[in-house]
Write a structure and sequence with these properties.
Layout (H helix, E strand, L loop, with lengths): L3 H34 L5 H4 L38 H10 L18 H13 L3
The structure holds heme C (HEC).
């Protein structure tokens, strides 16, 4: 049995976790933006704000996804839902052609998984 002090400690640490979690997600999104703008070079197609309006977008069909709309096409793991975190991760890592999409969305398996994950958080943060 927990005594009152232990129970209070458990309660406090649970509160602490809740307070820390959104901060962690925000940190990931910021790190993701740095990758997106930097080595990812995603902005050239998806735009610097992720609205699908990068310099190359006009010449592309299909258009690069507008992340503000948060509408995604591919169910990469066959779980019946498109655009889950796993799906976004897989499309960024492997490109969309292997999932039946356009070869103009390049795979970036050269980017470390943690950085791809951070870009997924960033893309989520752009949804309106
Ligand atoms: C050369 C242009 C280009 C670059 C560079 C590019 N994309 Fe894309 N992206 C596209 C196009 C075009 C599509 C739509 C592909 C399709 O419909 O098959 C797309 C689609 C996507 C999707 C949507 C997948 C879905 O299920 O709908 C995500 C997520 C994405 N890109 C992320 C990124 C990230 C992150 C980067 C940078 C690492 C990046 N893209 C770089 C052109 C590009």
């Amino acid at each position: 049995m927990m005594n009152r002090v232990q129970r209070a400690a458990v309660g406090l640490s649970a509160l602490g976790l809740l307070a820390v979690l959104p901060l962690t997600v925000m940190a990931d999104a910021a790190a993701g933006k740095a990758v997106y703008d930097g080595i990812g070079a995603c902005a050239g197609c998806h735009g610097s704000d992720g609205k699908g309006d990068g310099a190359a977008a006009a010449a592309l069909d299909p258009k690069p996804r507008n992340f503000a709309e948060a509408t995604f096409a591919y169910d990469t793991d066959g779980d019946g839902a498109t655009g889950t975190d796993v799906d976004l991760f897989n499309v960024i890592k492997n490109g969309s052609a292997v999932y039946g999409g356009a070869p103009t969305m390049p795979g970036r398996a050269d980017i470390p998984d943690a950085d791809i994950q951070a870009m997924v958080e960033y893309i989520r943060s752009l949804a309106m």
